[in-house]
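Researcher: I'd like a structural prediction for the single chain below. Treat it as a standalone chain; there are no partners to consider.
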Amino acid sequence: MKPLDLILDASESEKQHIIISQFGASLGKKSGRLVVREKGQVVTEVPFDRVEQVTVITSGASLSTDAIEECVRHGIEINLLDFRGSPYAKLFAPGLTATVKTRREQLLAFNDQRSIFLAKAFVRGKIQNQINTLKYFAKYRKSARQEVYAYLQDAALLMEKNLQELTGIDGLNIDAVRGPLMSVEGRAATRYWDAVAFLLKGYVVFPGRENRGATDPVNSLLNYGYAVLEARVLGAVLQAGLDPYAGFLHVDRPGKTSLVYDFIEEFRQPVIDRPVLAMVIAGVEIGMEGERLADGTKRDLLERIQQRLAATERFDGKKYPLQSILLRQARRMASYLRGDQKYKPFVCSW
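Model: Treating it as a single chain, here is the predicted structure.
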């Protein structure tokens, strides 16, 4: 199987994310190449060492065990998503990098200051990335739409004050500070989404942020994108040897990947919000089939998310693709829990 270091350091931009979206499509292996067929005809044929990830977003597709085995050998994750974009299965090598010490320290950290430190870092990263996303869209409107520029800048300034509140939050354990942290995060989110609604005026009707069950185009795009990102984050957490169910900021619940919901907060804005807002502002038609996104729009969004993940951001003094940063940051969290390295949230540029 391919070593994780090679996966992290590979030139991801040269690799392909294979998306299976046609009912009845099949995925197989032929002479060291991944082959996708639709209605019996080959539509994609790629060497395994040029594949970064496989995502199946349709029902009725078939995968051969030969192809699955070769994907595992090359460190290629296979994601199986339902119609909402939520991962219902993920195929990867068992015990890719799992270490007993990492999981033991993760569980012990729940009762000491490490859990508070990480929870605050996740919230700080999320709010800072929300601020930077507003600044990113504001800078292109400084001359052309001055009222939008001023609104976004004012919102960012108020959210900076939310960030300052985090410094004063402290306690003996995560249970003691979860409420205050959620309060700060919630107030910052309200300002962020109000600013997003102002930004989108004139482009589309955005009723405000709504989670699962939303039927408007913007929330449908966001919810689908977040579900796709969840699969990516789950993969990164597992590859770092962490237990996805043992979170800090989000409470334990049977079947809930709390650590994934903690860690995803640093990446929602740079990976999902930016391409979604850009789609809407660019006037891209958002296809809906009843109350759900149309398959063509899902595929369009997946390709935009993939482009965003392949885009570089500065991390530890160098530029890396976002998808590589996601893996590196998960490993940094594991290292912090073991006491080997400091942790700081990932903050995107604007």
